[in-house]
Design brief:
By secondary structure, the chain is α/β, with parallel strands linked by helices. Helices cover 43% and strands 14% of the residues. The chain has 3 domains: 189 residues, Rossmann fold; 81 residues, N-(1-d-carboxylethyl)-l-norvaline Dehydrogenase, domain 2 (Orthogonal Bundle), CATH 1.10.1040.10; 134 residues, 3-Layer(aba) Sandwich (Rossmann fold), CATH 3.40.50. Strand 13, helix 16 and strand 14 form a beta-alpha-beta unit. The chain is globular and about 70 Å long. It binds uridine-5'-diphosphate-glucuronic acid.
Length: 429
Amino acid sequence: MKLTIIGTGYVGLVTGTCFAEVGHQVICVDNNESKVKLLQAGGIPIYEPGLEEMVKKHVANGRLRFTASTKDGVENSDIIFIAVPTPPQPDGSVDLSYIEGVAREIASAMTSYKIVVDKSTVPVKTGDKVAETIKRYCKAKVEFDVVSNPEFLREGFAVEDLMKPDRVVIGVRSQRPVAAMRDVYTPFNAPIIVTDINSAELIKHAANSFLALKISYINAVSVICEASGANVQEVANGIGLDARIGRRFLDAGLGFGGSCFPKDLSAFIKISEQLGYDFALLKEVQRINAGQMERFFKKITDTLWVLKDKKIAVLGLAFKQNTDDVRSSPAIDLCQRLQKEGAILRVHDPKAMDKAKDILKNVTFVEDMNEVAEGCDALVIATEWPDFKKLDLERARKALTHPILFDGRNLFDPLEMEKLGFIYKSVGR
Ligand code: UGA
Protein backbone atom coordinates (compact mmCIF):
# COMPACT_ATOMS: atom_id res chain seq x y z
CA MET A 1 0.00 0.00 0.00
CA LYS A 2 1.11 3.57 -0.54
CA LEU A 3 1.45 5.31 2.82
CA THR A 4 2.70 8.70 3.93
CA ILE A 5 3.74 9.61 7.47
CA ILE A 6 3.96 13.28 8.37
CA GLY A 7 6.46 13.92 11.18
CA THR A 8 9.66 11.91 11.62
CA GLY A 9 9.96 11.94 15.42
CA TYR A 10 10.05 8.82 17.61
CA VAL A 11 6.56 7.75 16.50
CA GLY A 12 6.59 8.79 12.84
CA LEU A 13 10.02 7.51 11.91
CA VAL A 14 9.60 4.12 13.57
CA THR A 15 6.05 3.69 12.23
CA GLY A 16 7.11 4.54 8.67
CA THR A 17 10.07 2.19 8.84
CA CYS A 18 8.01 -0.71 10.23
CA PHE A 19 5.37 -0.16 7.53
CA ALA A 20 8.18 -0.50 4.95
CA GLU A 21 9.42 -3.62 6.75
CA VAL A 22 6.08 -5.39 6.15
CA GLY A 23 6.10 -4.43 2.46
CA HIS A 24 4.27 -1.09 2.20
CA GLN A 25 5.58 1.76 0.06
CA VAL A 26 6.31 4.61 2.48
CA ILE A 27 7.02 8.33 2.25
CA CYS A 28 8.13 10.09 5.44
CA VAL A 29 7.60 13.85 5.46
CA ASP A 30 9.19 16.36 7.81
CA ASN A 31 9.22 20.15 7.53
CA ASN A 32 12.70 20.24 9.07
CA GLU A 33 14.82 20.16 5.92
CA SER A 34 18.10 19.43 7.67
CA LYS A 35 16.51 16.39 9.33
CA VAL A 36 15.25 15.19 5.95
CA LYS A 37 18.75 15.63 4.48
CA LEU A 38 20.26 13.69 7.38
CA LEU A 39 17.77 10.84 6.88
CA GLN A 40 18.30 10.82 3.12
CA ALA A 41 22.04 10.48 3.76
CA GLY A 42 21.47 7.47 6.04
CA GLY A 43 21.71 9.32 9.38
CA ILE A 44 19.22 8.72 12.20
CA PRO A 45 18.29 11.68 14.45
CA ILE A 46 17.26 9.48 17.41
CA TYR A 47 18.60 6.38 19.13
CA GLU A 48 16.20 3.45 18.93
CA PRO A 49 17.48 -0.14 18.99
CA GLY A 50 17.23 -1.84 15.59
CA LEU A 51 15.98 1.26 13.77
CA GLU A 52 19.09 2.36 11.90
CA GLU A 53 19.60 -0.99 10.13
CA MET A 54 15.93 -1.10 9.09
CA VAL A 55 15.93 2.46 7.74
CA LYS A 56 19.09 1.78 5.70
CA LYS A 57 17.64 -1.47 4.32
CA HIS A 58 14.40 0.11 3.12
CA VAL A 59 15.95 3.29 1.76
CA ALA A 60 18.24 1.02 -0.28
CA ASN A 61 15.41 -1.20 -1.57
CA GLY A 62 13.27 1.85 -2.42
CA ARG A 63 10.38 1.15 -0.06
CA LEU A 64 11.15 4.15 2.18
CA ARG A 65 11.93 7.68 1.16
CA PHE A 66 12.10 11.07 2.88
CA THR A 67 10.86 14.46 1.70
CA ALA A 68 10.19 17.93 3.12
CA SER A 69 7.14 18.33 0.85
CA THR A 70 3.71 17.50 2.24
CA LYS A 71 2.32 17.89 -1.27
CA ASP A 72 4.65 15.13 -2.50
CA GLY A 73 3.52 12.88 0.34
CA VAL A 74 -0.18 13.53 -0.15
CA GLU A 75 -0.17 13.22 -3.96
CA ASN A 76 1.72 9.93 -3.93
CA SER A 77 -0.17 8.05 -1.19
CA ASP A 78 -3.66 6.80 -0.41
CA ILE A 79 -3.38 7.00 3.36
CA ILE A 80 -1.72 9.86 5.23
CA PHE A 81 -0.71 9.41 8.88
CA ILE A 82 -0.21 12.46 11.08
CA ALA A 83 2.57 11.90 13.64
CA VAL A 84 3.55 15.40 14.74
CA PRO A 85 4.17 16.62 18.31
CA THR A 86 1.28 17.59 20.58
CA PRO A 87 3.24 19.40 23.31
CA PRO A 88 1.78 20.49 26.65
CA GLN A 89 0.77 24.08 27.35
CA PRO A 90 1.34 25.75 30.74
CA ASP A 91 -2.24 25.00 31.87
CA GLY A 92 -1.87 21.27 31.11
CA SER A 93 -3.93 21.32 27.91
CA VAL A 94 -2.44 20.22 24.60
CA ASP A 95 -1.04 22.49 21.91
CA LEU A 96 -2.80 21.21 18.78
CA SER A 97 -1.37 23.82 16.42
CA TYR A 98 0.95 21.34 14.64
CA ILE A 99 -1.98 18.98 14.02
CA GLU A 100 -4.10 21.86 12.72
CA GLY A 101 -1.27 23.11 10.50
CA VAL A 102 -0.70 19.67 8.98
CA ALA A 103 -4.45 19.17 8.45
CA ARG A 104 -4.53 22.41 6.45
CA GLU A 105 -1.48 21.39 4.39
CA ILE A 106 -2.99 18.00 3.63
CA ALA A 107 -6.30 19.64 2.67
CA SER A 108 -4.71 22.01 0.21
CA ALA A 109 -2.70 19.19 -1.43
CA MET A 110 -5.64 16.75 -1.81
CA THR A 111 -6.98 16.17 -5.32
CA SER A 112 -8.56 12.72 -4.82
CA TYR A 113 -10.07 10.61 -1.99
CA LYS A 114 -7.66 10.19 0.96
CA ILE A 115 -7.74 8.60 4.36
CA VAL A 116 -6.20 10.94 6.93
CA VAL A 117 -5.11 9.09 10.06
CA ASP A 118 -4.19 10.72 13.34
CA LYS A 119 -1.41 8.84 15.16
CA SER A 120 -0.38 11.64 17.49
CA THR A 121 -1.78 11.55 21.02
CA VAL A 122 -4.68 13.99 21.12
CA PRO A 123 -7.61 14.81 23.41
CA VAL A 124 -10.95 13.23 22.66
CA LYS A 125 -12.92 15.05 19.92
CA THR A 126 -9.80 16.19 18.03
CA GLY A 127 -10.74 13.98 15.06
CA ASP A 128 -13.91 16.00 14.54
CA LYS A 129 -11.88 19.21 14.45
CA VAL A 130 -9.40 17.71 11.97
CA ALA A 131 -12.31 16.68 9.71
CA GLU A 132 -13.84 20.19 9.88
CA THR A 133 -10.46 21.76 9.10
CA ILE A 134 -9.81 19.53 6.08
CA LYS A 135 -13.29 20.20 4.74
CA ARG A 136 -12.79 23.94 5.12
CA TYR A 137 -9.36 24.13 3.48
CA CYS A 138 -9.75 21.55 0.70
CA LYS A 139 -10.24 23.59 -2.46
CA ALA A 140 -10.67 20.52 -4.66
CA LYS A 141 -13.69 19.51 -2.53
CA VAL A 142 -12.78 15.81 -2.78
CA GLU A 143 -14.03 13.15 -0.37
CA PHE A 144 -11.90 12.02 2.57
CA ASP A 145 -12.12 10.13 5.85
CA VAL A 146 -10.51 10.95 9.16
CA VAL A 147 -9.37 8.02 11.32
CA SER A 148 -7.87 7.84 14.80
CA ASN A 149 -5.13 5.20 15.12
CA PRO A 150 -3.29 5.82 18.41
CA GLU A 151 0.24 4.53 18.88
CA PHE A 152 1.24 2.42 21.89
CA LEU A 153 4.98 2.04 21.30
CA ARG A 154 7.46 2.56 24.11
CA GLU A 155 10.65 4.43 23.34
CA GLY A 156 13.61 2.08 23.51
CA PHE A 157 11.39 -0.84 22.48
CA ALA A 158 9.64 0.95 19.63
CA VAL A 159 10.54 -1.42 16.77
CA GLU A 160 9.58 -4.45 18.85
CA ASP A 161 6.28 -2.84 19.97
CA LEU A 162 5.39 -1.81 16.43
CA MET A 163 6.24 -5.12 14.81
CA LYS A 164 4.38 -7.12 17.46
CA PRO A 165 1.62 -4.85 18.82
CA ASP A 166 -0.69 -6.06 21.61
CA ARG A 167 -3.53 -4.50 19.65
CA VAL A 168 -4.28 -2.04 16.88
CA VAL A 169 -7.02 0.52 17.51
CA ILE A 170 -8.83 2.03 14.54
CA GLY A 171 -11.36 4.77 15.32
CA VAL A 172 -13.65 5.76 12.46
CA ARG A 173 -16.55 8.07 11.66
CA SER A 174 -17.85 5.80 8.86
CA GLN A 175 -17.19 2.28 7.58
CA ARG A 176 -15.57 3.42 4.35
CA PRO A 177 -11.89 3.52 5.53
CA VAL A 178 -12.08 0.33 7.64
CA ALA A 179 -11.06 -2.22 4.98
CA ALA A 180 -8.00 -0.19 3.88
CA MET A 181 -6.95 0.37 7.49
CA ARG A 182 -7.24 -3.36 8.18
CA ASP A 183 -5.07 -4.05 5.11
CA VAL A 184 -2.36 -1.73 6.48
CA TYR A 185 -2.18 -3.75 9.69
CA THR A 186 -2.94 -7.31 8.53
CA PRO A 187 0.80 -8.13 8.13
CA PHE A 188 1.36 -7.37 11.82
CA ASN A 189 -0.88 -10.26 12.97
CA ALA A 190 -2.34 -8.33 15.92
CA PRO A 191 -5.91 -8.06 17.21
CA ILE A 192 -7.60 -5.12 15.48
CA ILE A 193 -10.26 -3.17 17.36
CA VAL A 194 -12.54 -0.90 15.34
CA THR A 195 -14.32 1.79 17.39
CA ASP A 196 -15.88 5.19 16.96
CA ILE A 197 -13.32 7.96 16.70
CA ASN A 198 -13.90 9.45 20.18
CA SER A 199 -13.40 6.06 21.85
CA ALA A 200 -10.14 5.49 19.97
CA GLU A 201 -8.81 8.86 21.13
CA LEU A 202 -9.87 8.10 24.69
CA ILE A 203 -8.27 4.65 24.64
CA LYS A 204 -4.87 6.29 24.31
CA HIS A 205 -5.28 8.73 27.21
CA ALA A 206 -6.97 6.09 29.36
CA ALA A 207 -4.18 3.55 28.69
CA ASN A 208 -1.29 5.88 29.46
CA SER A 209 -3.03 7.25 32.56
CA PHE A 210 -3.67 3.72 33.83
CA LEU A 211 -0.01 2.76 33.35
CA ALA A 212 1.07 5.94 35.17
CA LEU A 213 -1.41 5.08 37.93
CA LYS A 214 0.16 1.63 38.26
CA ILE A 215 3.60 3.19 38.72
CA SER A 216 2.34 5.73 41.27
CA TYR A 217 0.56 2.93 43.12
CA ILE A 218 3.75 0.91 43.55
CA ASN A 219 5.68 4.07 44.41
CA ALA A 220 3.16 4.82 47.18
CA VAL A 221 3.51 1.21 48.37
CA SER A 222 7.30 1.73 48.37
CA VAL A 223 6.86 4.46 51.01
CA ILE A 224 5.02 2.01 53.26
CA CYS A 225 7.64 -0.65 52.57
CA GLU A 226 10.42 1.69 53.66
CA ALA A 227 8.54 2.74 56.79
CA SER A 228 7.82 -0.87 57.77
CA GLY A 229 11.02 -2.64 56.69
CA ALA A 230 9.36 -4.55 53.83
CA ASN A 231 10.79 -4.90 50.32
CA VAL A 232 8.81 -3.30 47.48
CA GLN A 233 10.26 -5.63 44.84
CA GLU A 234 9.01 -8.66 46.76
CA VAL A 235 5.62 -7.02 47.18
CA ALA A 236 5.52 -6.24 43.43
CA ASN A 237 6.45 -9.84 42.60
CA GLY A 238 3.78 -11.10 44.98
CA ILE A 239 0.96 -8.96 43.65
CA GLY A 240 2.17 -9.10 40.05
CA LEU A 241 1.66 -12.84 39.81
CA ASP A 242 -2.07 -12.21 40.08
CA ALA A 243 -2.94 -12.14 36.38
CA ARG A 244 -5.51 -9.42 37.05
CA ILE A 245 -2.72 -7.13 38.23
CA GLY A 246 0.37 -8.26 36.27
CA ARG A 247 4.02 -7.62 37.16
CA ARG A 248 4.83 -5.11 34.39
CA PHE A 249 4.90 -1.39 35.27
CA LEU A 250 5.26 -2.18 38.96
CA ASP A 251 8.87 -1.05 39.40
CA ALA A 252 9.25 1.58 42.09
CA GLY A 253 11.83 4.26 41.45
CA LEU A 254 12.25 7.97 40.89
CA GLY A 255 8.80 8.22 39.32
CA PHE A 256 7.78 8.25 35.68
CA GLY A 257 9.00 10.83 33.19
CA GLY A 258 9.36 11.18 29.44
CA SER A 259 7.40 12.99 26.81
CA CYS A 260 4.22 10.90 27.24
CA PHE A 261 2.99 10.05 30.75
CA PRO A 262 3.38 13.50 32.41
CA LYS A 263 1.89 15.26 29.39
CA ASP A 264 -0.91 12.78 28.78
CA LEU A 265 -1.96 12.78 32.43
CA SER A 266 -2.23 16.58 32.45
CA ALA A 267 -4.10 16.53 29.16
CA PHE A 268 -6.54 13.85 30.35
CA ILE A 269 -7.20 15.75 33.57
CA LYS A 270 -7.77 18.94 31.56
CA ILE A 271 -10.11 17.44 28.97
CA SER A 272 -12.05 15.68 31.76
CA GLU A 273 -12.42 19.04 33.49
CA GLN A 274 -13.68 20.59 30.24
CA LEU A 275 -16.20 17.75 29.98
CA GLY A 276 -17.38 18.45 33.54
CA TYR A 277 -15.50 15.82 35.58
CA ASP A 278 -12.84 16.41 38.23
CA PHE A 279 -10.47 13.44 37.71
CA ALA A 280 -9.03 13.72 41.25
CA LEU A 281 -7.62 10.17 41.09
CA LEU A 282 -5.21 11.23 38.33
CA LYS A 283 -4.25 14.38 40.24
CA GLU A 284 -3.17 12.08 43.07
CA VAL A 285 -1.12 10.03 40.59
CA GLN A 286 0.74 13.24 39.71
CA ARG A 287 1.19 14.17 43.37
CA ILE A 288 2.68 10.77 44.27
CA ASN A 289 5.00 10.99 41.27
CA ALA A 290 6.34 14.39 42.35
CA GLY A 291 6.67 13.17 45.96
CA GLN A 292 8.79 10.22 44.89
CA MET A 293 11.53 12.52 43.60
CA GLU A 294 11.27 14.74 46.72
CA ARG A 295 11.73 11.71 49.00
CA PHE A 296 14.72 10.42 47.05
CA PHE A 297 16.35 13.83 47.08
CA LYS A 298 15.80 14.04 50.84
CA LYS A 299 17.52 10.68 51.22
CA ILE A 300 20.59 12.23 49.60
CA THR A 301 20.54 15.39 51.72
CA ASP A 302 19.82 13.42 54.93
CA THR A 303 22.93 11.35 54.25
CA LEU A 304 25.34 13.92 52.80
CA TRP A 305 23.87 16.89 54.74
CA VAL A 306 25.34 19.96 52.99
CA LEU A 307 25.62 19.44 49.22
CA LYS A 308 27.58 22.60 48.45
CA ASP A 309 30.90 21.64 46.82
CA LYS A 310 30.22 17.91 47.28
CA LYS A 311 31.24 15.88 44.23
CA ILE A 312 28.46 13.57 43.11
CA ALA A 313 28.56 10.98 40.33
CA VAL A 314 25.32 10.32 38.45
CA LEU A 315 24.70 7.27 36.28
CA GLY A 316 21.84 7.80 33.84
CA LEU A 317 20.43 10.92 32.16
CA ALA A 318 17.78 9.50 29.79
CA PHE A 319 14.23 9.32 31.15
CA LYS A 320 14.52 5.53 30.99
CA GLN A 321 16.69 2.77 29.54
CA ASN A 322 17.39 2.13 25.82
CA THR A 323 16.78 5.70 24.71
CA ASP A 324 18.67 8.95 24.21
CA ASP A 325 15.54 10.96 25.08
CA VAL A 326 16.01 13.37 27.98
CA ARG A 327 12.65 15.16 27.75
CA SER A 328 11.03 15.37 31.23
CA SER A 329 13.71 13.01 32.51
CA PRO A 330 13.65 12.40 36.28
CA ALA A 331 17.45 11.93 36.02
CA ILE A 332 17.92 15.45 34.61
CA ASP A 333 15.54 16.85 37.22
CA LEU A 334 17.63 15.19 39.93
CA CYS A 335 20.90 16.55 38.48
CA GLN A 336 19.44 20.05 38.41
CA ARG A 337 18.26 19.78 42.02
CA LEU A 338 21.75 18.63 43.08
CA GLN A 339 23.36 21.50 41.16
CA LYS A 340 20.97 24.00 42.71
CA GLU A 341 22.30 22.97 46.14
CA GLY A 342 25.86 23.55 44.91
CA ALA A 343 26.93 19.95 44.17
CA ILE A 344 29.58 19.36 41.51
CA LEU A 345 28.50 16.63 39.08
CA ARG A 346 30.24 13.93 37.06
CA VAL A 347 27.67 12.20 34.87
CA HIS A 348 27.41 9.31 32.43
CA ASP A 349 24.72 7.86 30.17
CA PRO A 350 25.26 5.18 27.51
CA LYS A 351 23.28 7.07 24.82
CA ALA A 352 21.84 10.35 26.12
CA MET A 353 24.95 12.48 26.80
CA ASP A 354 24.79 14.43 23.53
CA LYS A 355 21.16 15.42 24.07
CA ALA A 356 21.80 16.15 27.78
CA LYS A 357 24.60 18.58 26.85
CA ASP A 358 21.95 21.02 25.60
CA ILE A 359 20.26 21.07 29.01
CA LEU A 360 22.89 20.32 31.65
CA LYS A 361 25.60 22.91 31.98
CA ASN A 362 28.77 22.92 34.13
CA VAL A 363 28.89 19.15 34.61
CA THR A 364 31.64 16.72 33.60
CA PHE A 365 30.42 14.18 31.03
CA VAL A 366 32.34 10.93 31.49
CA GLU A 367 32.52 8.44 28.60
CA ASP A 368 33.28 5.32 30.67
CA MET A 369 30.70 4.42 33.34
CA ASN A 370 33.47 2.85 35.43
CA GLU A 371 35.28 6.19 35.69
CA VAL A 372 32.33 8.32 36.75
CA ALA A 373 32.75 7.77 40.53
CA GLU A 374 36.39 8.92 40.53
CA GLY A 375 36.96 11.25 43.52
CA CYS A 376 33.23 11.65 44.28
CA ASP A 377 31.49 11.75 47.66
CA ALA A 378 28.61 9.58 46.45
CA LEU A 379 27.26 7.75 43.43
CA VAL A 380 23.63 8.04 42.28
CA ILE A 381 21.84 5.72 39.84
CA ALA A 382 19.05 7.64 38.12
CA THR A 383 18.08 5.57 35.03
CA GLU A 384 17.35 1.85 34.79
CA TRP A 385 19.93 1.06 32.07
CA PRO A 386 20.71 -2.70 32.22
CA ASP A 387 24.40 -1.82 31.51
CA PHE A 388 24.67 -0.30 34.98
CA LYS A 389 24.24 -3.76 36.51
CA LYS A 390 27.65 -4.54 35.01
CA LEU A 391 29.29 -1.64 36.86
CA ASP A 392 32.66 -2.59 38.37
CA LEU A 393 31.44 -2.19 41.97
CA GLU A 394 34.80 -2.88 43.57
CA ARG A 395 36.37 -0.13 41.48
CA ALA A 396 33.48 2.25 42.20
CA ARG A 397 33.79 1.66 45.96
CA LYS A 398 37.51 2.41 45.88
CA ALA A 399 37.03 5.46 43.63
CA LEU A 400 34.51 7.08 45.99
CA THR A 401 35.86 9.09 48.91
CA HIS A 402 33.00 7.51 50.91
CA PRO A 403 31.34 4.34 49.61
CA ILE A 404 27.82 5.81 49.43
CA LEU A 405 25.49 4.66 46.64
CA PHE A 406 21.95 6.01 46.12
CA ASP A 407 20.12 3.66 43.78
CA GLY A 408 16.99 5.36 42.43
CA ARG A 409 16.12 2.35 40.25
CA ASN A 410 16.72 -0.62 42.61
CA LEU A 411 19.29 -2.23 40.32
CA PHE A 412 21.30 -3.95 43.04
CA ASP A 413 20.61 -6.26 45.97
CA PRO A 414 20.84 -4.37 49.30
CA LEU A 415 22.45 -7.27 51.19
CA GLU A 416 25.08 -7.84 48.47
CA MET A 417 25.89 -4.14 48.46
CA GLU A 418 26.34 -4.08 52.22
CA LYS A 419 28.64 -7.08 51.96
CA LEU A 420 30.69 -5.20 49.37
CA GLY A 421 31.11 -2.38 51.89
CA PHE A 422 28.67 0.17 50.48
CA ILE A 423 26.33 2.45 52.37
CA TYR A 424 23.51 1.60 49.99
CA LYS A 425 20.15 3.40 49.81
CA SER A 426 17.50 2.40 47.32
CA VAL A 427 13.71 2.82 46.97
CA GLY A 428 11.19 0.95 49.10
CA ARG A 429 13.66 -1.58 50.48
C1 UGA B 1 4.65 5.23 27.17
C2 UGA B 1 3.75 4.00 27.08
O1 UGA B 1 4.33 2.91 27.80
C3 UGA B 1 3.53 3.60 25.62
O2 UGA B 1 2.62 2.52 25.55
C4 UGA B 1 2.98 4.81 24.86
O3 UGA B 1 2.81 4.52 23.49
C5 UGA B 1 3.93 5.97 25.00
O4 UGA B 1 4.09 6.29 26.40
C6 UGA B 1 3.38 7.15 24.25
O5 UGA B 1 2.34 7.67 24.65
O6 UGA B 1 3.89 7.51 23.19
P1 UGA B 1 7.31 5.67 27.05
O7 UGA B 1 6.99 7.02 27.61
O8 UGA B 1 8.17 5.56 25.84
O9 UGA B 1 5.93 4.88 26.67
O10 UGA B 1 8.04 4.85 28.19
P2 UGA B 1 7.62 3.80 29.33
O11 UGA B 1 8.40 2.56 29.11
O12 UGA B 1 6.17 3.66 29.43
O13 UGA B 1 8.18 4.53 30.63
C7 UGA B 1 7.65 5.78 31.08
C8 UGA B 1 8.26 6.17 32.40
O14 UGA B 1 7.78 5.31 33.45
C9 UGA B 1 9.79 6.09 32.46
O15 UGA B 1 10.26 7.24 33.14
C10 UGA B 1 10.06 4.84 33.26
O16 UGA B 1 11.27 4.89 33.95
C11 UGA B 1 8.87 4.84 34.22
N1 UGA B 1 8.54 3.50 34.74
C12 UGA B 1 8.08 2.53 33.90
C13 UGA B 1 8.63 3.26 36.11
O17 UGA B 1 9.04 4.14 36.90
N2 UGA B 1 8.29 2.02 36.58
C14 UGA B 1 7.85 1.04 35.77
O18 UGA B 1 7.54 -0.06 36.29
C15 UGA B 1 7.73 1.30 34.40
